[in-house]
Amino acid sequence: MPLMPLKIPPGIYRNGTEYQSIGRWYDANLVRWFENTLRPVGGWRARSASAMSGTCRGMINWRDNSDKRWTVAGTNTNLYVMNESGVMKNITPTIFTPGEATALLKTGYGYLAYGSFAYGVARPDYGSVTPAATWSMDTWGEYWVGCCTSDGQLLEWQLGFTTPTKAVAIVNAPTSCAAVMTTSERFLFALGASGNPRLVAWSDQEDNTTWTPAANNQAGSFELTTVGSIVAGKRVRGVNLIFTDVDVHTSSYIGMPFVFSFEKAGSGCGLIGPQAVAAIDTAAIWMSRSGFWIYDGYVKPLPSDVGDYVFQNINLDQASKVYAIHNSKFGEIWWFYTSVDNLENDSYVIYNYRENHWSLGTLARLSGVDKGVFSNPMMAGSDGYIYEHETGFLYDSATIFAQSGPIEIGTGENIMQVRQVIPDETNLGDVAISFTSRLYPTGSETSYGPFTSANPTDARFSGRQVKMKVTGDTLTDWRVGVMRLDAVTAGKR
Predict the structure, then answer these.
(1) Residue 317 — φ and ψ, nearest 5°?
(2) β 188-191/179-182 pair status
(3) Buried b (16+ CB within 10 A) or exposed e, 198-234
(4) Which residue blocks in 322-366 are alpha helix, DSSP H?
(5) What is the enclosing helix (H) or strand (E) of 228?
(6) Structure confidence by residue, pLDDT tens digits, 416-464
(7) DSSP string across 365-431
(8) Which residues contact 413 (CB under 8 A, 6 or more apart)?
């Protein structure tokens, strides 16, 4: 019988049952499919010389006018700046109000009136979740601007590192804000301004200290027509996107007298959390409670091969922690989220928008930023350190693997007897190959391997349905192409 090539399409398929992923990849960790090959994601190393206090929920990097590179990271208790050497300084304003490290669900003792429910039974969620404190950040020229949800003040850091200059509140700016962003026309937007969850206020052009409208300036405000609350804003080419927790609006500069026009762009597609959106020049891609969405001139649902799994696996009480990071080198959006049985980000889902496929895995990252002015992306770990990613191949002992869904001969009515595996690797032995087999989609499994790669690799086993697992066996930049099986039909059962 001819060799059976395992031409498995790139990306994970994890919707519905395991059997529905027949002929596809079903599970993975810290791998990617890029340019038609399976390979490991890059490793990481500590970039910051010291750990931050608190949990990091916001990060940005940029270059100032003197060509120095900076990274600012905000936790629920502090604000830090890191220079290009990894030295960190605390620039927390003296007026800053710390926030919650984790979201709080009001279902325990003391919530609602005495006697409302049976003794010892947790109260149901009749109240809203108190979200974790998150940061929105942008730049104003060479200066940093930001806002934390726990504090609501619009802050600015005007550089100064040797003797650290603290961030300060922007003069005359609205307070009790949800987020901040700078438009391409150099207006500063205060989103959810003055405690009004629907209000967008903006400063005068090129002047972030003038917020009161007058005949000689372009400051102003507009209240969105929405039932939701503004949670974030994102700048894409030609338009500003304003996200609430239920819908999305666009804002465009039109000049005097109205300055900006506003229009609802989509309903039922609001952000799942303030940092769950990433911008990619002409588009924005985000996660909502109803799935994944994309704006490329129009708001559209983004079909996902893993959405069913992700939304069963996510802890929605901790949705405020979802953090999207653009990895432009590989055309990927990473969303880090808290899995259903945990209270902190420990899992991720990836969408490759260049090649249109998805991946999954586990990694404890709280926030991050694309490579920007630095060579590699940076992400904050749960231990308080900032890590440089896509560098080297060290993974803190994590297992790097990809596992296929069921593989069958023909229509699957015959038992497959596998005798040999013909590997397809850049360097023979970089990965270990193992298999499991079963007779029925929900039947018990039998494992075989791992096998040491050779040309060919002897591997004798049988089953109606076979799954292959490829595990990184060396800390190198390995590649896997099309594996082939020497398999024959062994009859029916």
Answers:
(1) -65, -25
(2) antiparallel
(3) bbbbbbbbeebebbeeeeebbbbbbebebebbbbbbb
(4) none
(5) none
(6) 889 999 999 999 989 999 999 998 888 899 999 899 888 899 988 888 8
(7) EEEEE--TTSSS-EEEETTS-EEEESSSS--TT---EEEE--B-STTTTEEEEEEEEE--BSSTTSE
(8) 464, 492
pLDDT digits (tens, 9 = 90+) for 162-213: 988 999 999 999 999 999 999 999 999 999 999 999 999 999 999 999 999 9
* Strand, helix or coil for residue 313: helix
Q: What is the torsional sign of CA 30, 33, 34, 36?
A: positive
Strand residues in 64-142 grouped as ranges (E): 69-75, 79-83, 88-90, 135-140
Task: Check residue 282 and give its pLDDT.
Answer: 87
Structure tokens at 138: 């942008």
For residue range 36-46, list pLDDT tens digits in order: 899 999 999 99
First to last CA, the chain: 20
Residues 298 and 50: their CA atoms lie apart, in Å, by: 43
The identity of residue 228, as a single letter, is G
DSSP letter at 473 equals -
Task: Give the tokens for residue 442.
Answer: 């929900």
Report the candidate in 107, 112, 109 with the shortest Cα–Cα distance to residue 124.
107
**Per-residue tokens: 319:** 């949705």
Give the chain's length. Answer: 493
Sheet holding 88-90, edge to edge: 56-63, 69-75, 79-83, 88-90
Helix then strand then coil, % of the chain, to nearest 5: 5, 45, 50
